[in-house]
Amino acid sequence: MNRIDRLHAILTHLQSKKRVTAQEIADRFNMSLRTVYRDIKALDESGVPVIGEAGSGYTIMEGYRLPPVMFTQEEAAALLLGGKLAAHMTDASVKKHFETALFKIKAVLRTTDKEQMDMLSDHIEVIRSRIPEEEAPSQHLSALQKAIADKRSIFILYHSNYNEEVSERVIEPIGLCHYGANWHLIGWCRLRNGYRDFRVSRIKRLQLKDEQFDLSVHPSLQDYIKTMASSHALHEVVLRFDKDVVKYMQNQKYWYGFVREEEEKDFIRMYFVTGSLEGLARWLLMFTNAVRVEFPDTLHTMMKAYCAEMKDHYQ
């Protein structure tokens, strides 16, 4: 990257955040701190109102904006892929905003790049999984993002799939997490007085409250996920199914945390994320010798125990 392109990229980065440290710029553009200081000085001397100094971070004076950014063909293509995935993995509330953002991005592209975007759009598709209708995405993702960003508590009506009850909850949301083909809200539940994982598609009604909560008293989403993994609240599972039995699964696999699959010559390898190895194991019994556990060993041992119990029961 030549210096002019680098200065433009640094300026764009400065405008993307409230405050940026010199070390952050150095790490992103693979340059020394001394070079960062020289480039910041060059921007300041060229009339860009850079506020701050080495050690405390830099920001751009409020009100200063670059002209519309010109995207490269590769950047525009990457955004197109992101739009396709957003349409598949989010709900209508997010897709609407992403589509308008994509239109604004296309408006600043060169004519040749617009033509490439239109051509690529017809040749890229994400196939939607056949998720059961009752587990279809809700319309709450945009509201949940706003609640998290504004540190506002929320009121929800939540349908529990385990006991078929609908309960009223007040939640202090700390993040959104996507796993097992579903979006999950992680937050502090005042009703249960503890952190809970809520599947977004089971939220029947959501209302943002006026009150704000102190986010600093809660762990970050990343720390919470690490805690879940270390406490084995979620389990990664890899299974091998004979091809001739896969057709009998239909939509059932989604209830047990199905994530993705790989087709091999003689079998289908499936990946799951589940909170209950016991529930998954009991479901697998119906496939008898047409399924094999590749990971974890705990599930393999559990299957052997259940098979032994069935043998004793029917004898």
TrEMBL record:
GO terms for molecular function: DNA-binding transcription factor activity. SUPFAM superfamilies: Winged helix' DNA-binding domain (SSF46785). It comes from the Bacteria. Keywords: Transcription, Transcription regulation. Pfam families: HTH_11, WCX, WYL. Residues 3-58 form the HTH deoR-type domain. This is YafY family transcriptional regulator. It comes from Paraflavitalea soli.
